[in-house]
C-alpha cells in the first residue's frame, strides 16, 4: 500500500474536522483530512446553511407583513430554492477543497477506517499518525423500525434540505428541531404539511417554546397531531404515501420526512457501529484517539463541534510538543454545560443553559423569572402585534443565571448576551450595570432584572 505519515489524521471534513486540522497546522504540526463525501460536511450542504436559506425568505416576508407601509408580494418558491442552491454551493466542494490546500492540510478522498493504533486506511493508502487520530464523522438521520417505512424511501433531513421541488403534501414524523423547522419552511413554500409529533413539540426546551411554535404552525395551516404514533407506512402504485397511526387513522402525503433523531457515523470506520464515542473534557477517547463534533454525542450543534475542535487541536499540539495541558476550568477543555441553540421556526426559539426543570433536577435552588416580550417597547416597534416570551432561571445560592430561553420574532440575535452572562457567571447585581439600549428588544434584560429583586 501507499504509506504516508502525518502528525495528525482527521476522519471527516465537516466544520469540526476542518477546525481541528487547521488548529493543529497553525500549531506547527502536519495534518491530513479523510473525507468520503463533500469537504464541508453536513452543515454546508444538507443542514445549517441550506435549511436556513429555505427558511429565511419566508421569515423576511413575515417581518415585512408585520409593519405597515412595506409592499409585500407572494413568496416565489423557485427563487427560494435557487437561493438555497447558492448557499449549498450547488453541492460542489471546490472552494472548500481550495481552502484546505491554502491552509496546508492534505486531503484524502474515500472512507477512512482505523485498522490499528494511529493507523487509518483509505482505499490503497495507509496513513499513520505520529500523535493523534481524530474522528469527526458526524451523524446521520435515524429512521425508526416502523413496518414499511424504509420501503417508501422517506426523506430525511438531507432530502428535505436538498429538495428540487415542493411536494403538494408533506407528512413529517417527529417534533424536534428538524421537524419544526422543515414544517415552517415547506408550509411557507406551499406544501400542505402534517406534523406527527408523538412526544410533543420541542420537548427538550421550556414548555412555552413548544406551545408557541405549535400555535404558529397551526396558524400557518400545518396540521399538528400531538401524541401521534406511526405504526405503518405504504406507498400506493400511483406514488401516494399512506401512514397508519396507532388509533387506526391514516395520513396521506406525497412525501414523508423522518425527523426522529440522529445516529453516530461510526460504522465502517473501525469503531463500534452506532455507538457514540465517549470522550473526556479534552475530547480524548484514549491516549491517541480523539472525537470532536456530533459523533461524541455531547451537543449535536455545529458551533459546539467547532468549539470542541479548536480546543482539541490546541490540546493535541500541546501534548505533541511536550507542553502542559491546562485542562482545568477555563483552560483547554470543552465544557458542554453552556450550550446555546436557536430553532429557526416562527416564532424563533433561542435558549442557552438549563431549563427550569433541568435546573431543579440538578439540585439547584432556583427562581424562575418570566416576562412578556411583547410588552417591551422595542418589540412593539419591531413588529405590530409582537408576541413573545422570555424566561431566565436563576441559581439563588450563587445569584447567577443558569438558563435563558426566548421565543419570539428575531430573538436569535439576543441569545449571545445570555450566553456570556451564563458562561461568565456574571452576578445579577453586576448585570444591572449592563444597561440595554432603548428602544430595543434587548430591553427585556432590564425588565427581567426588575422582576428579580436583589
From TrEMBL:
Pfam families: Pyr_redox_2 (PF07992), Pyr_redox_dim (PF02852). It comes from the Bacteria. Signal peptide: none annotated. GO terms for molecular function: dihydrolipoyl dehydrogenase (NADH) activity. It is an enzyme of class 1 (oxidoreductase). InterPro entries: Class-I_Pyr_Nuc-Dis_Oxidored, FAD/NAD-bd_sf, FAD/NAD-binding_dom, FAD/NAD-linked_Rdtase_dimer_sf, Pyr_nuc-diS_OxRdtase, Pyr_nucl-diS_OxRdtase_dimer. Belongs to the class-I pyridine nucleotide-disulfide oxidoreductase family. This is Dihydrolipoamide dehydrogenase. The lineage of its organism: Bacteria, Bacillati, Actinomycetota, Actinomycetes, Micromonosporales.
Amino acid at each position: 500500500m501507499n504509506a504516508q505519515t502525518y502528525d495528525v489524521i482527521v476522519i471527516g471534513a465537516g466544520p469540526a474536522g476542518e477546525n481541528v486540522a487547521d488548529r493543529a497546522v497553525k500549531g506547527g504540526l502536519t495534518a491530513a483530512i479523510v473525507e468520503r463525501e463533500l469537504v464541508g460536511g453536513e452543515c454546508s450542504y444538507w443542514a445549517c446553511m441550506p435549511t436556513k436559506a429555505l427558511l429565511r425568505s419566508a421569515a423576511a416576508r413575515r417581518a415585512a407583513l408585520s409593519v405597515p407601509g412595506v409592499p409585500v408580494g407572494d413568496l416565489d418558491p423557485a427563487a427560494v430554492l435557487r437561493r438555497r442552491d447558492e448557499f449549498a454551493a450547488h453541492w460542489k466542494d471546490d472552494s472548500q477543497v481550495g481552502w484546505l490546500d491554502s491552509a496546508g492540510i492534505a486531503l484524502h478522498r474515500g472512507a477512512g477506517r482505523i485498522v490499528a493504533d494511529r493507523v487509518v486506511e483509505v482505499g490503497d493508502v495507509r496513513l499513520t499518525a505520529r500523535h493523534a487520530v481524530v474522528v469527526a464523522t458526524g451523524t446521520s438521520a435515524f429512521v425508526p423500525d416502523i413496518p414499511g417505512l424504509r420501503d417508501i424511501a422517506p426523506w430525511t433531513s438531507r432530502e428535505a434540505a436538498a429538495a428540487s421541488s415542493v411536494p403538494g403534501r408533506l407528512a413529517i414524523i417527529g417534533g424536534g428541531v428538524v421537524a419544526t423547522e422543515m414544517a415552517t419552511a415547506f408550509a411557507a413554500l406551499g406544501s400542505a404539511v402534517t406534523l406527527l409529533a408523538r412526544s410533543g413539540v420541542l420537548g427538550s426546551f421550556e414548555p412555552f417554546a413548544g406551545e408557541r411554535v405549535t400555535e404558529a404552525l397551526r396558524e400557518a395551516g400545518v396540521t399538528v397531531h400531538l401524541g401521534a404514533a406511526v405504526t405503518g407506512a405504504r406507498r400506493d402504485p400511483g406514488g401516494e404515501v399512506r401512514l397508519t397511526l396507532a388509533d387506526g387513522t391514516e395520513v396521506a402525503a406525497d412525501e414523508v420526512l423522518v425527523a426522529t433523531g440522529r445516529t453516530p457515523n461510526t460504522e465502517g470506520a473501525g469503531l463500534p457501529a452506532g455507538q457514540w464515542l465517549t470522550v473526556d473534557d479534552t475530547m480524548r477517547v484514549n491516549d491517541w484517539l480523539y472525537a470532536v463534533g456530533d459523533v461524541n454525542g455531547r451537543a449535536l450543534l455545529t458551533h459546539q463541534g467547532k468549539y470542541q475542535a479548536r480546543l482539541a487541536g490546541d490540546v493535541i499540539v500541546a501534548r505533541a510538543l511536550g507542553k502542559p495541558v491546562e485542562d482545568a476550568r477555563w483552560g483547554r477543555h470543552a465544557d458542554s454545560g453552556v450550550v446555546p441553540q436557536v430553532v429557526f421556526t416562527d416564532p424563533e426559539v433561542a435558549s442557552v443553559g438549563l431549563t427550569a426543570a433541568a435546573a431543579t433536577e440538578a439540585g439547584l435552588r432556583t427562581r424562575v423569572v418570566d416576562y412578556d416580550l411583547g410588552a417591551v417597547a422595542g418589540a412593539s416597534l419591531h413588529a405590530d402585534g409582537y408576541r413573545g416570551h422570555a424566561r431566565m432561571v436563576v441559581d439563588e445560592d450563587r445569584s447567577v443565571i443558569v438558563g435563558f430561553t426566548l421565543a419570539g420574532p428575531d430573538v436569535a440575535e439576543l441569545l449571545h448576551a445570555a450566553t456570556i452572562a451564563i458562561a461568565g457567571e456574571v452576578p445579577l447585581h453586576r448585570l444591572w450595570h449592563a444597561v440595554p439600549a432603548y428602544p430595543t428588544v434587548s430591553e427585556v434584560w432590564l425588565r427581567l432584572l426588575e422582576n428579580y429583586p436583589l
